Amino acid sequence: VLRTLSTSDDIHDRENEKGRLEEAYEKCDRDLDELIVQHYTELTTAIRTYQSITERITNSRNKIKQVKENLLSCKMLLHCKRDELRKLWIEGIEHKHVLNLLDEIENIKQVPQKLEQCMASKHYLNATDMLVSAVDSLEGPLLQVEGLSDLRLELHSKKMNMHLVLIDELHRHLYIKSTNRVGQRTKEKGRISSLVKDASSVPLMDVTNLSTPRKFLETSQFSTPGSSSMRETSLLEIKEDVELDPEENSTVFMGILIKGLAKLKKIPETVKAIQDRLEQELKQIVKRSTTQVADNGYQRGENLSQENQPR
């Protein structure tokens, strides 16, 4: 239209064209007004709906912006909290470790008293376990605790001398306890002979069935290839019952003593002590046996003399 108006040289044509345009505009306005009147309700609803949607989108944008700001703030706070939580976690581990050390210190302080009780009741395996564990703790995790220096020296000294007590007990059961059984059997035979008029009718004492340390190891064990493992397994299975008399079973008691010496790592010293004292202990056995035989013979003679003299 603008090209037509600009290229036209006749004013009349331009006026005609202008009139047609104005008429078309007026017609368009009328049609638009009619359409607006016809669709007023729908148009109003659409405008209101569009306005509501626009407001919601604007609010949502503002909320999302606020959420983003809050998320960034939470992220920063979480970083701070994470460092604080890590610090608290480390402190918790440290406090737990300190409490464990304090409990261990309290238990170790009671070791000397418990050790004396175990030694008095001759529960040597429990005493050895307790002593070795306490010394390892004092020379390990508790090495830097200056307040335990005296206790450390005391328990270390007891550990150094513990094997001497165990060796003495082992020798006592090897040489004295085992031969005492023979002596007691001899005394029982002597009592029987005193009740019988003819002492010659009493049979001689049979020592073949007596339990001696030599018979603790059967000959079959030395002839089988797996004998060492069998003896080792039996030694490992030995356990100490605090409710029973530890010396009731001599075999088990000597096994407990050897196990305690092994935990003290004093087996070489034990073997050397047994070798050094072997001759002396055997001489003592002969001496005690001779004394017992002489005493029994003297008592038997006294009984015979009393039978011959009724007064």
Automatic annotation (TrEMBL):
Keyword annotations of the record: Coiled coil, Exocytosis, Protein transport, Transport
Single GO biological process annotation from the record: protein targeting to membrane
Recorded GO CC terms: exocyst; growth cone membrane; synapse
Function: Component of the exocyst complex involved in the docking of exocytic vesicles with fusion sites on the plasma membrane.
Family membership: Belongs to the SEC8 family.
Domain Exocyst complex component Sec8 middle helical bundle: 246-296
Residue runs in coiled coils: 18-70
Protein species of origin: Phalacrocorax carbo (Great cormorant)
Residue ranges of domain Exocyst complex component Sec8 N-terminal in the record: 20-117
Protein name: Exocyst complex component Sec8
Presence of the UniProt keyword Transferase in the record: no
Keyword Repeat among UniProt keywords: no
